[in-house]
Amino acid sequence: MRILVVNPNTTASMTRKIGLAASAAAAPGTEVVAVNPEDGPASIEGYFDEAYSVPGLLMEISRGERAGFDGYAIACFDDTGLEAARSLAAGPVIGIGEAAFHCASLIAGRFSVITTLSRSVPAIEHNLGKYGLAARCARVRACEVPVLALEDQAGDARAKISAEIEAAMREDRCEAIVLGCAGMADLTAELSERHGLPVLDGVACAIKLLEGLVGLGLKTSKIGGYATPLSKSYAGRFAAEGPGGS
Ligand code: 5HY
User: Ligand 1 mean position to 231 CA, how many Å?
Assistant: First the structure.
């Protein structure tokens, strides 16, 4: 099977990191391709960036459809543009946030999320409620590391994430940790070993869930909210980017 992983921000080094994590999780018969849009924010930190990342994300999904991909992972922890992407795609589309929440809820009674900045917390809390998993999440925490600081191997991002994990274990009665940014995808094994509890990354979770759904022959339902977009004109810069894509 062929899975397209879309990093909705435009930072190529993060896309490469995400692609490595996705490929490491993939089964031998699964081809993983990781891409990011040419247009849009360098990182997604809050609602404004999310909005500006969606057109580029949908362009990549349209391209993926024309290339015949079997399933898609949206590699932004806010699950940016998830429902619109499902309207475009025939196969399953999974957001890494939703994937991580579901996997964590299957191995732990309670989990905490460690994301980047405080401004990203409300959107994640909203998604937990939307997915019906708010009761399983003890708390969504921010380690106050900007998304792109995760690209600096010499920085203090790891130390800050670790400190927040320790606080979560002390205060939240959490039994697992979900890393709340695609840019943390390379940290799970190290952090799980250091802190002695399951640490989940949404990129790997999304790949394994997609393999299961595609393997079952399941596609996105088109009889309700994820119905294929109606044919209509899209004016201005979106003229070539409507459902037909460019
Ligand atoms: C992400 N932002 O996974 C989110 C995380 C966040 O550019 N990729 C981003 O901080 O909301």
Answer: 32
Measured distance CA(71)–CA(219) in Å, rounded: 8
| pLDDT score of 162 | 97
Q: Is 43 in the pocket of ligand 1 (CB under 6 A)?
A: yes
Query: Cβ(50) to ligand 1 under 6 A?
Result: no
Residues 190 and 105 in one domain: yes
E strands within 75-192?
A: 93-95, 111-115, 137-142, 176-180
The finding on whether 114 has its CB within 6 A of some atom of ligand 1 is no
CATH classification at residue 18: 3.40.50.12500
Range of the domain at 77: 2-96+205-238
SS3 3: strand
| HSE-up (13 A, CA, CB side) for residue 143 | 29
Band of residue 243 on the pLDDT scale cut at 50, 70, 90: low
Q: How many structural domains comprise the chain? A: 2
Please indicate whether residue 182, judged by its CB atom, sits closer than 6 Å to ligand 1. Answer: yes
Q: Identify whether residues 140 and 155 lie together within a single domain.
A: yes
How many A from CA of 115 to the centre of ligand 1?
8
Cα-to-centroid distance, 233 and ligand 1 (Å): 32
Tens-digit pLDDT profile for residues 151-177: 888 889 999 999 999 999 999 999 999
Q: What is the pTM of this model?
A: 0.96
